[in-house]
Structure formats: structure tokens, C-alpha cells
Specification:
The complex is a heterodimer of chains A (248) and B (230). Chain A is an alpha+beta fold and 248 residues long. Chain A contains five helices and ten strands, in the order E-E-E-E-H-E-H-E-E-H-E-E-E-H-H. Chain B folds into three domains: 45 residues, RNA polymerase II/Efflux pump adaptor protein, barrel-sandwich hybrid domain (OB fold (Dihydrolipoamide Acetyltransferase, E2P), Beta Barrel), CATH 2.40.50; 77 residues, Beta Barrel (OB fold (Dihydrolipoamide Acetyltransferase, E2P)); 77 residues, Ribosomal Protein S8, Chain: A, domain 1 (2-Layer Sandwich), CATH 3.30.1370.10. The longest helix of chain B has 16 residues. The chains are: A alpha+beta (248), B alpha+beta (230).
């Protein structure tokens, strides 16, 4: 028996959710969402809802893990039991542990850990609702929460996935496209340093498709970066007329 | 340079705030030929350096700072003091007793128990060792009166104001006394419970609107009775 594949993209290049191939899902950013965390954000990208909280720098426990020359970064990526179709066990899975490590590695290039040795910075990424691309969305949100916590950073990292569905390269895959598509490649990019800090791939791409994918992902990340910057600046927006006051 | 003549500019980490011969000041770092901001804050350009005044942050100890801390651990020869920073302050027993410390005669727990609020000064600190505190100066030592308010350490400069202007206006208007620790902990002493609430709100107002103008007037207005939002 063969199962008929869902048509993920039509002849006009329009995807199931009405987006074009190089279009991001709508993004909403709410900084300082949690009262008790040092930095926090509620980040939504399409149907993905992610809550990130940052604590620190603070004393390291257990003590033997502290480093004499730099801070350590602890990242926990966790999916809520209600974030997916079928209840997910709340215990950390193998996938979550791997993604926590991958996100930590992607955040490390922007962290200035040498400024506060013997301390720890903790990042908690809680996926409240998943709809594909949660690792890069979590990473984008984590960078925002770190900046919101006032932790010194060399730049801001933004990430989005590219993939191939029915032979077409598309940007920012949702869950259906991720599962039923031909390939999926999450990429994180640091625009101010022009560096890629995360690159993974699942599926098969030709060299040409890979190159095209990279450039699409960088373009997507640049758009996300602009939204991140706007959100950070608007949190401390000066009331109307104040900028004029000092110009005079 | 771009942005030089405009008003306060909010910058984000990674944003270029100067290029060429500028030196990277506080909260800025040189990457290649540019100076970039490392925190969300207001860009401040000087004649040779460019820096960022952070809008949020944590307290990094500095030698000479007055801090308000809470004793969180007592050992036989020192007190460990929570100074609202990634590092704990260390107050050695010799500093308090002023002589060679004798564990058979001196009981550190009796002098300052856990939970005691201390006004102290940082005498030594580098990132490889915890900040060393002293209370051997007038006005320092145990704080017996008042209540504690925690303000984000990045906003402390605004609570004090230029040359202490904000602080003295608050004290005058409220007829109270405030000791401001650089670590973001403030001890306020007042006999009037209604004034206590107003002072807490005034400090929260400074914290929320630290980067705006006309704040001193707003704070004085709040304290002297014309309370907003009531």
C-alpha cells in the first residue's frame, strides 16, 4: 500500500500556509516577559511559541565545574508535554540533550565569558508549542533573552531553517514541511560577525541546492536580526519628542 | 561620525558605535576597525573613546565602591556577604576585630549573624578572587535601621544623579535618609510608613525611566504628594 504525499507546494510556488518559498513565518517578540528572570522573552514564529529565561552570571554549583578563566554557559532546551500532538514525556530526551548542546555551541561565539570567570550563565528554552524549526527559533529567542539580561555579547545570533520540498528550496519550514519534505537544514548566523554558528542537515541536497539554501538562510536570518534589533530598541524607546529635545 | 549630533541613541550588542581611531570604552569592544557595543544601552561618545551606558545589567565589583550586603555565611575567620553580584564579598574577621583574631575569645556569629545588613567598602578585587570588604571607616558597618530596596545596578548612577543631585532631592523632599550601595541595594530610613511606600515607588520609577528626561521633577512630584496613577 502506498500513501499519497501531501502537496506541500503548488505550481505557483505557494506553500500550504500561503507563504512563498522565501518567506518567513510571522514573528512576534515580547521582551521581559517574566518578572523573576534576569532576562526573558516570549518568542512566536508562526505556530511556534517559545519562552526563554536567562539567569546569571551567578555562582557555579557544583563548585568543581567552575572555570578559573571564564564563565560557563548552561543551556536547557525543553519541550513542554503539551507542545506536540501526542503528549511528550517531560523527562529530557536524547534529542533535547543534543539540542541543548548544539544551541550552547551556537551561542558561545557571541558570549564574552572571559569577562566574568568562575560564574555560570543559565539559559532555559521552553518550547510551549512546536511547529518545526524550534531549535533555531529557540536560539534566536535565547540571544534576545541574553541581551535583555544585560549580559555582554559580541553580537546577536539569529537562525532559521531551509529545506527542500518537492524539489524546491524553501525558507523557514513548518512541522509538515519538515516531516514530509525532502531535506531540512537549520542554520544560525551572526550578522555583525558574518559568521555561521550552527549548521545541521537532514536529507539530501545537491551542491547547488546547498549553496542556494545557505544564501536563503542568511537572508532569512538578516530579516530576523532586523526584528530582534527593533524589539530590543523599542523596549527602551524614548517617549515622543525627547530625542528632539536634546538635538536643539 | 554618524549619530554624533543626535540625541540619546539606544544601541544593541554587536552594533557599530564608532570606527577609526576611537578607543573602546565601557561596554564596548573593538572588532577589526570598528568599536561595537556589547550591551543594550545608550551610546556615549567622548573625544577619543566611545562607550555604552547599559540600561540593564549586573553588578561587577570595583575597588572603592560602597556596597550594601547581607551576611549569608559565617566561618570561623570571615563573613561571606551577598553583595548582589556574581561574586560574594569576603569580610575577614581581622578587619572587624581590628587585631589578631583569637577564635577562643571572638565569636564571629555573635558579631554579625546570618541576615545582618552591612554597609561596606570594597578594598581589593580582581576576577580571580572574591571581593575583599572592609567596614573600618566611619559610616560603615551594621545597618540597624531602615528598609532595603533593590534597584538594577545599572540604574544606580541615576538614583544618585549628577554630583548626588537626585539623591539629595529625594532626601530633602521625603525628609528621609538613603544609603545607596553601588551594587543596587539601597537602605532607606524614614519614620513615616506612607512615605516608605512613596519612596519605593520613586525608586521603581527611576529604575523604569532612568533613560528619560525630567525624571528628577517627576520623582520629587511623586514624593511630595502629587502621585501619578492614583
Amino acid at each position: 500500500m502506498t500513501e499519497e504525499k501531501t502537496k506541500l507546494i503548488d505550481e505557483n510556488g505557494i506553500r500550504t500556509d500561503g507563504r512563498k518559498s522565501d518567506e518567513l513565518r510571522p514573528v512576534s517578540i515580547e521582551l521581559g516577559y517574566l518578572k523573576h528572570a534576569d532576562g526573558s522573552v516570549l518568542y512566536e514564529q508562526g505556530k511556534c511559541k517559545i519562552l526563554v529565561a536567562v539567569f546569571g552570571p551567578s555562582e557555579v554549583h557544583p563548585k568543581h565545574l567552575e572555570l578559573p578563566d571564564r564563565a560557563i554557559l548552561r543551556v536547557r532546551y525543553h519541550m513542554a508535554p503539551f507542545s506536540v500532538d501526542e503528549r511528550k514525556s517531560p523527562a529530557p530526551s536524547r534529542r533535547e540533550m543534543e539540542l541543548s548542546m548544539v544551541i550552547r555551541n551556537a551561542l558561545e561565539p557571541i558570549m564574552m565569558t572571559e569577562l566574568f570567570p568562575r560564574t555560570v550563565v543559565e539559559v532555559f528554552i521552553e518550547i510551549l508549542q512546536a511547529d518545526g524549526g524550534t531549535r533555531v527559533a529557540g536560539l534566536t529567542a535565547a540571544a534576545l533573552a541574553l541581551a535583555d539580561a544585560g549580559i555582554p555579547l559580541r553580537g546577536i545570533v539569529s537562525g532559521c531553517a531551509v529545506g527542500k520540498i518537492h524539489g524546491t528550496m524553501v525558507l523557514d519550514l513548518n512541522d509538515t514541511e519538515d516531516k514530509e519534505g525532502d531535506a531540512d537544514m537549520p542554520i544560525a548566523y551572526i550578522p555583525t560577525m558574518s559568521k555561521i554558528s550552527l549548521l545541521q542537515m537532514d536529507g539530501l541536497l545537491t551542491r547547488e541546492e546547498f549553496r542556494q539554501g545557505i544564501s536563503m538562510a542568511i537572508n532569512g536570518s538578516m530579516k530576523l536580526y532586523a526584528m530582534q534589533v527593533a524589539a530590543l530598541k523599542s523596549k527602551y524607546n524614548l517617549p515622543e519628542g525627547q530625542e528632539k529635545e536634546e538635538t536643539q | 561620525m554618524e549619530g554624533e549630533s543626535r540625541g540619546p541613541v539606544v544601541v544593541v550588542p554587536g552594533e557599530v558605535i564608532g570606527s577609526g581611531n576611537y578607543r573602546a570604552g565601557d561596554n564596548a569592544v573593538r572588532i577589526g576597525n570598528s568599536v561595537v557595543a556589547t550591551r543594550v544601552g545608550i551610546r556615549r561618545g567622548g573625544p577619543d573613546a566611545v562607550s555604552v551606558i547599559p540600561l540593564k545589567g549586573f553588578y561587577v565589583p570595583r575597588v572603592g565602591d560602597l556596597v550594601v550586603g547581607i551576611v549569608c555565611d559565617v566561618t570561623y575567620n570571615m563573613w561571606k556577604v551577598d553583595i548582589n553580584s556574581p561574586y560574594f564579598g569576603v569580610l575577614p574577621a581581622t578587619d572587624v576585630f581590628g587585631r589578631r583574631f583569637d577564635p577562643t575569645r571572638d565569636d564571629p556569629l555573635r558579631t554579625f549573624d546570618i541576615g545582618t545588613v552591612l554597609k561596606a567598602k570594597i578594598v581589593a578585587y580582581d576576577r580571580s578572587q572574591d571581593p575583599l570588604l572592609t567596614i573600618r571607616e566611619p559610616e560603615l558597618g551594621k545597618a540597624d535601621f531602615g528598609f532595603l530596596v533593590r534597584v538594577n545596578p545599572a540604574k544606580i548612577a541615576r538614583v544618585i544623579g549628577r554630583g548626588g543631585s537626585m539623591l539629595s532631592k529625594i532626601q530633602q523632599a521625603s525628609n528621609s535618609r538613603a544609603i545607596v550601595g553601588q551594587n543596587g541595594t539601597v537602605i532607606v530610613t524614614t519614620n513615616d510608613p506612607a512615605m516608605r511606600d512613596k519612596l519605593i515607588r520613586a525608586l521603581r520609577l527611576i529604575e523604569d525611566e532612568a533613560h528619560t528626561y525630567g525624571l528628577t521633577e517627576k520623582v520629587v512630584e511623586l514624593i511630595s504628594g502629587k502621585v501619578e496613577g492614583e
